[in-house]
Design a protein that fits this description.
The protein is of the alpha+beta class. The chain contains five helices and six strands. The protein has one domain. It is globular and about 40 Å long.
Protein backbone atom coordinates (compact mmCIF):
# COMPACT_ATOMS: atom_id res chain seq x y z
CA UNK A 1 0.00 0.00 0.00
CA UNK A 2 2.82 2.39 0.91
CA UNK A 3 4.60 1.64 -2.39
CA UNK A 4 1.41 2.45 -4.32
CA UNK A 5 1.09 5.77 -2.48
CA UNK A 6 4.70 6.71 -3.29
CA UNK A 7 4.24 5.62 -6.91
CA UNK A 8 1.04 7.67 -7.13
CA UNK A 9 2.68 10.78 -5.71
CA UNK A 10 5.66 10.37 -8.01
CA UNK A 11 3.37 10.00 -11.01
CA UNK A 12 1.41 13.08 -9.96
CA UNK A 13 4.56 15.16 -9.58
CA UNK A 14 5.84 14.06 -13.00
CA UNK A 15 2.49 14.94 -14.53
CA UNK A 16 2.52 18.36 -12.88
CA UNK A 17 6.09 18.97 -14.04
CA UNK A 18 5.03 18.13 -17.57
CA UNK A 19 2.19 20.61 -17.38
CA UNK A 20 4.50 23.44 -16.41
CA UNK A 21 7.47 22.78 -18.66
CA UNK A 22 6.79 24.54 -21.93
CA UNK A 23 9.02 24.00 -24.91
CA UNK A 24 12.76 24.07 -24.86
CA UNK A 25 14.85 25.95 -22.35
CA UNK A 26 16.85 27.47 -25.19
CA UNK A 27 15.48 30.94 -25.71
CA UNK A 28 16.61 33.72 -28.02
CA UNK A 29 17.30 37.26 -26.83
CA UNK A 30 14.07 38.35 -28.48
CA UNK A 31 12.02 35.69 -26.67
CA UNK A 32 13.55 36.62 -23.32
CA UNK A 33 12.97 40.34 -23.98
CA UNK A 34 9.30 39.73 -24.86
CA UNK A 35 8.83 37.64 -21.70
CA UNK A 36 10.58 40.25 -19.56
CA UNK A 37 8.38 43.02 -20.96
CA UNK A 38 5.22 41.00 -20.25
CA UNK A 39 6.47 40.22 -16.74
CA UNK A 40 7.05 43.92 -16.03
CA UNK A 41 3.50 44.66 -17.17
CA UNK A 42 2.25 42.04 -14.68
CA UNK A 43 4.57 43.53 -12.04
CA UNK A 44 3.01 46.97 -12.57
CA UNK A 45 -0.51 45.53 -12.43
CA UNK A 46 -0.08 43.19 -9.43
CA UNK A 47 2.49 44.81 -7.12
CA UNK A 48 1.39 47.79 -5.05
CA UNK A 49 3.86 50.64 -5.46
CA UNK A 50 5.52 49.00 -8.48
CA UNK A 51 6.20 52.33 -10.20
CA UNK A 52 7.98 53.60 -7.07
CA UNK A 53 10.14 50.46 -6.85
CA UNK A 54 11.00 50.81 -10.53
CA UNK A 55 11.91 54.47 -10.03
CA UNK A 56 14.17 53.72 -7.05
CA UNK A 57 15.89 50.69 -8.62
CA UNK A 58 19.50 51.00 -9.70
CA UNK A 59 18.89 47.74 -11.56
CA UNK A 60 16.21 45.07 -11.83
CA UNK A 61 16.65 41.38 -12.50
CA UNK A 62 13.45 40.14 -14.15
CA UNK A 63 12.94 36.37 -14.45
CA UNK A 64 9.54 35.55 -15.95
CA UNK A 65 7.88 32.15 -15.76
CA UNK A 66 10.21 30.53 -13.24
CA UNK A 67 9.29 26.84 -13.13
CA UNK A 68 9.51 25.03 -9.80
CA UNK A 69 8.72 21.35 -9.27
CA UNK A 70 9.28 19.06 -6.32
CA UNK A 71 8.77 15.62 -4.93
CA UNK A 72 10.89 15.76 -1.75
CA UNK A 73 13.77 16.95 -3.96
CA UNK A 74 12.87 20.20 -5.65
CA UNK A 75 14.26 22.39 -8.36
CA UNK A 76 13.55 25.69 -10.03
CA UNK A 77 14.69 27.16 -13.31
CA UNK A 78 14.20 30.34 -15.29
CA UNK A 79 15.75 32.76 -17.75
CA UNK A 80 15.63 36.51 -17.52
CA UNK A 81 17.40 39.80 -17.96
CA UNK A 82 19.13 42.44 -15.89
CA UNK A 83 17.71 45.86 -16.67
CA UNK A 84 19.68 49.01 -15.87
CA UNK A 85 18.09 52.33 -16.72
CA UNK A 86 15.19 50.41 -18.26
CA UNK A 87 17.43 48.73 -20.85
CA UNK A 88 18.66 45.14 -20.98
CA UNK A 89 22.28 44.94 -19.89
CA UNK A 90 22.75 41.16 -19.60
CA UNK A 91 20.88 37.84 -19.54
CA UNK A 92 20.80 35.40 -16.62
CA UNK A 93 19.76 31.85 -15.75
CA UNK A 94 18.19 31.03 -12.40
CA UNK A 95 18.83 27.53 -11.04
CA UNK A 96 17.94 26.37 -7.56
CA UNK A 97 17.38 23.19 -5.65
CA UNK A 98 15.87 22.22 -2.33
CA UNK A 99 15.33 19.21 -0.12
CA UNK A 100 12.50 18.64 2.31
CA UNK A 101 8.80 17.95 2.61
CA UNK A 102 7.48 19.34 -0.66
CA UNK A 103 5.41 18.17 -3.57
CA UNK A 104 3.88 19.90 -6.56
CA UNK A 105 4.74 22.26 -9.36
CA UNK A 106 4.20 25.90 -10.15
CA UNK A 107 5.25 28.86 -12.22
CA UNK A 108 5.81 32.41 -11.09
CA UNK A 109 7.51 35.65 -12.05
CA UNK A 110 10.44 36.98 -10.04
CA UNK A 111 11.72 40.54 -9.94
CA UNK A 112 14.74 41.44 -7.86
CA UNK A 113 15.27 45.14 -7.27
CA UNK A 114 18.82 46.31 -6.54
CA UNK A 115 18.25 49.50 -4.57
CA UNK A 116 21.89 50.57 -4.24
CA UNK A 117 24.78 50.82 -6.67
CA UNK A 118 26.85 48.67 -4.30
CA UNK A 119 24.32 45.80 -4.41
CA UNK A 120 23.98 46.06 -8.20
CA UNK A 121 27.74 46.15 -8.78
CA UNK A 122 28.28 43.14 -6.50
CA UNK A 123 25.67 41.22 -8.51
CA UNK A 124 27.20 42.19 -11.86
CA UNK A 125 30.74 41.32 -10.72
CA UNK A 126 29.83 37.84 -9.49
CA UNK A 127 30.28 34.73 -11.59
CA UNK A 128 27.38 33.00 -9.88
CA UNK A 129 25.37 35.18 -7.50
CA UNK A 130 23.49 33.17 -4.90
CA UNK A 131 20.49 34.63 -3.06
CA UNK A 132 20.96 34.41 0.69
CA UNK A 133 24.73 33.93 0.37
CA UNK A 134 25.99 36.85 -1.72
CA UNK A 135 23.18 39.12 -0.55
CA UNK A 136 20.06 38.77 1.54
CA UNK A 137 16.99 39.17 -0.64
CA UNK A 138 14.07 40.64 1.29
CA UNK A 139 10.84 39.28 -0.18
CA UNK A 140 8.11 41.89 -0.30
CA UNK A 141 4.55 40.64 -0.05
CA UNK A 142 2.85 41.63 -3.29
CA UNK A 143 -0.50 42.78 -1.85
CA UNK A 144 0.95 44.87 0.99
CA UNK A 145 1.24 48.61 0.47
CA UNK A 146 4.56 49.47 2.13
CA UNK A 147 6.41 52.71 1.41
CA UNK A 148 9.20 51.85 -1.04
CA UNK A 149 11.52 54.45 0.46
CA UNK A 150 11.27 52.89 3.92
CA UNK A 151 12.04 49.38 2.61
CA UNK A 152 14.95 50.59 0.50
CA UNK A 153 16.48 52.44 3.45
CA UNK A 154 16.57 49.13 5.36
CA UNK A 155 17.22 46.59 2.56
CA UNK A 156 19.42 46.96 -0.51
CA UNK A 157 17.97 43.96 -2.39
CA UNK A 158 14.21 43.42 -2.63
CA UNK A 159 12.47 40.45 -4.22
CA UNK A 160 8.95 40.19 -5.60
CA UNK A 161 7.26 36.91 -6.44
CA UNK A 162 3.98 37.32 -8.31
CA UNK A 163 1.68 35.83 -10.94
CA UNK A 164 1.85 32.43 -9.27
CA UNK A 165 0.21 29.45 -10.97
CA UNK A 166 0.38 26.01 -9.45
CA UNK A 167 0.11 23.87 -6.38
CA UNK A 168 3.03 24.74 -4.07
CA UNK A 169 3.31 27.02 -1.07
CA UNK A 170 6.18 28.79 0.59
CA UNK A 171 8.30 30.03 -2.29
CA UNK A 172 11.77 31.20 -1.38
CA UNK A 173 14.62 32.52 -3.49
CA UNK A 174 17.21 31.61 -0.87
CA UNK A 175 19.78 29.34 -2.48
CA UNK A 176 18.77 30.27 -6.03
CA UNK A 177 21.85 30.85 -8.15
CA UNK A 178 21.96 33.38 -10.96
CA UNK A 179 24.59 33.04 -13.68
CA UNK A 180 25.18 35.20 -16.69
CA UNK A 181 24.34 33.61 -20.03
CA UNK A 182 24.52 34.54 -23.69
CA UNK A 183 21.32 33.52 -25.50
CA UNK A 184 21.35 33.04 -29.23
Amino acid sequence: MKIMRVFGLLSLSLLLCGLFVTGSYAMSKEEINVSVKASLERFDAQVKGASEYRRIAKGMLVVPNVTKAAFVLGGQYGKGALLVGGKTEAYYNLVGGSLGYQIGAEKYDLVIVFATDEALNKFKASEGWEAGVDAEVTLVEVGVDLPAGTLVSQHSVLGFIFDQKGLMAGISVKGAKFTRTVPY
